[in-house]
Amino acid sequence: MRLSRFWTLLNDEFGEAYAGTLARDHVIGALGNRTVLQALEDGEPPREVWLALCDDMGVPESRRLGAELRKHR
């Protein structure tokens, strides 16, 4: 997953305003008690960060692919 796709998924799922706050402030245990931004800056793959965030926030599997792909299913 490219970083641009990661940000598209994050904004689609949580809205632009909350996505930024979530990425900056929400600490995820599965990412070593780091925020999304810290994990990405440390070189974690965007896909792994996305999946960890989805697990932590309870995003159902059906919504993890993004709005574009949900429409086509």
- The structure class reads mainly alpha
Number of strands: 2
Helix content: 55-70%
Order of helices and strands: HHEEHHH
Widest sheet: strand ordering: 1-2
**Main sheet specs:** 2 strands, antiparallel
Give me the Rg, rounded: 12 Å
Number of helices: 5
Alpha-carbon distance between the termini?
20 Å
What's the layout of helices and strands?
Layout: H1 3-14, H2 16-25, E1 27-28, E2 34-35, H3 36-41, H4 46-57, H5 67-72
Antiparallel strand pairs: 1-2
Walk me through what this model shows:
With 73 residues, the chain is mostly helical. It has one domain. The protein is built from five helices and two strands. Strands 1-2 form a two-stranded antiparallel sheet. Helix 1 packs across helix 2. The two termini are 20 Å apart.
Short recap of the structure:
This protein has 73 residues and is mainly alpha-helical. Helices cover 63% and strands 5% of the residues. It has one domain (3-57).
